[in-house]
Fold:
Amino acid sequence: MNSIELARRIRLHALRMVHAARASHIGSALSIADILAVLYAPEQGLRLRPADPQWSERDRFLLSKGHACVAVYAALAERGFFPLEELQTYGRDFARLMNHISHQVPGVEFSTGSLGHALPFGVGKLLAARLRGESWRCVVLLSDGELNEGSNWEALMFAAHHRLSQLTVVVDANGLQSLTTTAETLDLGDLATKFAAFGCAVAEVDGHDHAALRGALLAPLPEGESRPRVVIARTVKGRGVSFMENEVAWHYRSPSDAQLAQALQEIGDA
Amino acid sequence: MRKAFIDELCALAAANERIVLMVGDLGWSVVEPFADRFPTRFFNAGVAEQNMTGMAAGLASEGFHVFSYSIANFPTFRCAEQLRNDVAYHGLPVTVVSVGGGLAYGALGYSHHAVQDYALLRTLPGMRIAAPGCPMEVRACLRHLVTNPGPSYLRLGKAGEPAQHGAPPALQSGRWLPIKSGQGRRALLATGAALAAALEWQARSDHADCAVYSLPLWGMDAKGLQAEQIAAFDEVIALEDHLSDGGFGSWLLEAASGAGLAGRVRLRGLDARVCGEVGSQATLNRLGGLTPT
Structure:
């Protein structure tokens, strides 16, 4: 399965899950589907062993925007970390697939839900890698709105100071946050310049272009590079479903039966 | 207590390569022995407690036991959500170390008065509170926490507290340590640096009948052990250099209430009138009602 097909399946699962659970945040999940598909693609993706989720040499992936978890659950199930049927339990009483990402789920490293937590945690993980002389990488996926949280910048300062080049930060830059645009909330300004000023190697890509994402996220480090990597992925919230794209409302709404049918058709339900 | 802390931590770290010390740009003249001896396992996170605590959790998730060190409220309230979500919820071996518990930094004002920390930490499931009353209890607590790694909070007083034990005592979470026997049916039960206050009360004629106990290790999980210990007395006076609201005494009361023993527990913590006042530790402890006037 290539990443394009994986992205299509992630979107279909995500839509069905939030519809069945009457849950929120489908716009966020659709926004990151392509980033996840590139990372979780069986070939050329992160180093993972679905049959051995705690494999010590695995690459670590952390979803800081934990509300978009349906997309990660879908990717993990498609890769065989747990049965696809379990996706149907999402959001049910006592289900391990809870509505913010949960470390009870095989393949999930860390539970989030409150923003600004995963980047410090990932930096700590890489200190462990350094202490043990291990070469795995840690990829942390943040939202752009989440960059309002100062803890992210604390962690970046530390990572750059300690030259943690095994760190890759991906920003899902869809330009929307909880009430309105990021620009109208707390204008992030020139993000690339900000990250560069914090000592990071910065790339800016179309967050739905798989080849561009693959190159930015997964290419080997250039010789002598010691900076943490930041990839600003320019995305569209709700990507793939015409009536959800760029609409803050789909941070909250759950699709009706008719809306689900239309959304699945637009994504290309086989 | 600080010297006992760093000496013992160095001894433990020499035998255990998983022990890491992380500081929030504090610890001058305390942490150097560790930093000099184990430079790769010492990190200064800078003045950034949220990141320090999140990083500590991340390191701990990879099998290390991280001691995150700062003073007063900085490693607790400043990063309370990191402790709640990253450390306690994930059940990770991070020991938060705070020096200047209670009113040890009384002259530095309210920002440096750690008098609500128990209230915060004790409501986190799985969090063990280690509040030693003397340098021997510091060593005992550290050994216990390293042998039984998990989310924990080590609250240290200032320097110069006298040892109350000839050697580090054996510890069980929730089990009272006898310090002085009494003739009557009353007990003074202290946690942390309030042990000195308990001894001060016991030296007075109106408390001379009281036995004195220290409880340096406790938490939500240890409530079940309290009723049988309280039942041996008609009155147990719980002492803490912490506000009486939500602290150690409240914890003991909660534990007692299930067994119908709440009437035997008396709280002797700090009154909120200390908040906003400035002065020496002794002055403020007296003002707050912890020590005799």
Summary: The CA atoms of residues 150 and 275 of chain B lie 32 Å apart. Chain B touches chain A through 29 residues (CB under 8 Å). Chain B has a mean pLDDT of 97.
